[in-house]
Amino acid sequence: MVSFNGTTVHHCLTTPCVGSSLFVTGSINIRNDSGVVTPAYKCFVDLIQIPNGDQFQFFENNWNLCSQDDLVDGPHVLTINVTTAGQEFLFDSIQYKPSPGAPLYDKVIKLNHMDPDIQYGAGWGPLGSTANMTGHTGSEVSLNFIGERLILYIKGNSNHLQGTLSNG
């Protein structure tokens, strides 16, 4: 995952990635002046345009700007061309599925709630199609991993969150 800032001027972002899919997110905050949408952007992989995500009329973080799932596994170059009339275009992240055997020592690995390595105990269930949830005190979730850190992102009410991280 690569993270960037934003721009209020015409800008071209180019970054390498190695893998078979990618997903670009940003904070969407478009302005429509009589049919002229700003900021506007186009995403390219290896100089071939890929589809933009749906436009949204309200401010939203981590919005799908563009994505491509069926890339030939290997090295690629992602290019995002931004045109704006002063409305800020914000990059949140570029996530990609790395090639098998690719070095990951300095990378952030993101697992979603459907990852088979995450084991949910009794009391857990789906929260729509985007997350899992529990309302039961003492419910457990486990993940075995090799790495230096684990960061848990929680949406919603976390007033009663308790947890332990064990090295075992």
CATH class of the largest domain: Mainly Beta
Mind describing the biggest β-sheet?
7 strands, antiparallel
Q: Write the CATH architecture name of the largest domain.
A: Sandwich
Number of strands: 13
Helix content range: under 10%
| Whole-number mean pLDDT | 81
User: In whole angstroms, how far apart are the ends?
Assistant: 27 Å
Q: Can you say what the CATH homologous superfamily of the largest domain is?
A: Galactose-binding domain-like
Number of helices: 0
The tally of structural domains comes to: 2
In CATH, the topology of the largest domain is named Jelly Rolls
Structural class: mainly beta
Low-confidence stretches: none
N-to-C SSE string, H for helix and E for strand: EEEEEEEEEEEEE
Task: Please tell me how large the radius of gyration is.
Answer: 19 Å
Strand content: over 45%
> Shape from CA axes?
globular
Q: What oligomeric state is this?
A: single chain
Can you tell me about this structure?
- By secondary structure, the chain is an all-beta fold.
- 0% of the residues lie in helices and 46% in strands.
- It contains no helices and 13 strands.
- Strand 5 and strand 6 form a beta hairpin.
- The two termini are 27 Å apart.
- The mean pLDDT is 81.
